[in-house]
């Protein structure tokens, strides 16, 4: 976590929370953030679509950014039940997660579609958080580097730069399992991603793009993960649903 990249602490609420839950969580985080005079981190919450408007109102003016968990590649049209990047922007979102492994698994999303979604997000002035990461099987087979590099190359639009793109490295086997790679393993994949970004975007942009770690990040392990040289914050699922835990993770940046 070098000085020139401000850590991003991003909460992925997934399919969790009814109105009252979302509002309570957003209110608690908003109060904490308002009380923080000079935060050294950026904080982001990505509620389910149904809660975005409500959460947006609750955190308005707190400095916490608002995001969504997916968008459609098209701007509008006959796509029943889908949501476009322009619609998210219209609701006040600044970020959108694309290519999360649960989308790749549950909805068969491939790199090309993830790239199209990221492009649509960028075109609507959203920052795309592009998720990549290997399965346990791929890691056991020694394919982690290949898989991560292929997903990065295949999912990253040409229009990417440090202002509209964040990468999240999320080993699929670490998501929601309580297991994490060792610090060395995390750092080596993040360094590989940084190298891939250099090849795609040039050294200056690559040095400025934030690369988050995701997968069972919690207050107990956040400090050491975020301190790794190429880790610039976290994409947090389970622990982002409790204001106390999510805040404790953010405080690990200090
Ligand atoms: P987790 O999820 O923190 O619950 O492991 C992270 C994610 O899927 O983004």
Topology:
Layout: E1 8-12, H1 19-35, E2 42-46, H2 49-59, E3 65-68, H3 85-90, E4 95-98, H4 101-106, H5 111-123, E5 127-132, H6 136-140, H7 144-155, E6 165-169, H8 183-201, H9 203-208, E7 210-214, H10 219-226, E8 233-236, H11 243-251
Helix pairs in contact: 1-2, 1-11, 5-7, 7-8, 10-11
The protein binds 2-phosphoglycolic acid.
What labels describe this entry?
single chain, 254 residues, alpha/beta, TIM Barrel, eight-stranded parallel barrel, 44% helix, globular, binds 2-phosphoglycolic acid
Order of helices and strands, N to C? EHEHEHEHHEHHEHHEHEH
Domain count: the total is 1
Indicate the low-confidence ranges by residue numbers. Answer: none
What's the number of helices? Answer: 11
Structural class: alpha/beta
Short description:
The chain is α/β, with parallel strands linked by helices and 254 residues long. It has helices at 19-35, 49-59, 85-90, 101-106, 111-123, 136-140, 144-155, 183-201, 203-208, 219-226, 243-251, and strands at residues 8-12, 42-46, 65-68, 95-98, 127-132, 165-169, 210-214, 233-236.
What does this protein look like?
The chain is of the alpha/beta class. It is built from eleven helices and eight strands. The mean pLDDT is 97. Strands 1-2-3-4-5-6-7-8 form an eight-stranded parallel barrel, surrounded by six helices. The chain has helices at residues 19-35, 49-59, 85-90, 101-106, 111-123, 136-140, 144-155, 183-201, 203-208, 219-226, 243-251; strands at residues 8-12, 42-46, 65-68, 95-98, 127-132, 165-169, 210-214, 233-236. The chain has a single domain (8-251), classed as Aldolase class I (TIM Barrel), CATH 3.20.20.70. The N and C termini lie close together (11 Å). The chain is 44% helix and 15% strand. α1 (19-35) packs parallel to α11, α7 runs parallel beside α8 and α10 (219-226) runs parallel beside α11. It binds 2-phosphoglycolic acid (PGA). 2-phosphoglycolic acid is lined by residues 12, 170, 175-176, 214-217, 235-239.
